[in-house]
Amino acid sequence: MQLNGNGRIVADKNSDAQAVTGTRDWIKHTIELPLSEEVLSIGFGCKMTGNAKAWFDDFEVRIDGVVLE
């Protein structure tokens, strides 16, 4: 996830420490970053290596515990 400000990255974080390999049951993954008034946009994605598929279910973006719709 990346928090972007006026022409710069305010904060970023990845979930490399939670990397999934092989076939797995569903696992909840979360990334949290502090939000400030400097943030103008939020970017997020899925980084994959090799030949693989990713499935997402109940994907949510929350700010201060409130789900964005």
Notable traits:
globular; single chain; 0% helix; mainly beta; 69 residues; three-stranded antiparallel sheet
Structural features, described:
- The chain is mostly beta strands.
- It has one domain.
- The protein has no helices and 5 strands.
- The strands form 2 sheets. It has a 3-stranded antiparallel beta sheet, with no helix packed on it.
- 1% of the residues are buried.
Provide a concise account of the structure shown.
This protein is an all-beta fold and 69 residues long.
Q: Helicity range of the residues?
A: under 10%
Radius of gyration: 14 Å
Low-confidence stretches: none
- The largest beta-sheet arranges its strands as 2-1-3
| Content-based structural category | mainly beta
Main β-sheet: number of strands, strand sense, barrel status? Answer: 3 strands, antiparallel
Count up the helices: 0
Strand content: 15-25%
Number of strands: 5
Distance between termini?
18 Å
Gross morphology:
globular
Helices and strands in order:
Layout: E1 2-4, E2 9-12, E3 41-43, E4 62-63, E5 66-67
Antiparallel strand pairs: 1-2, 1-3, 4-5
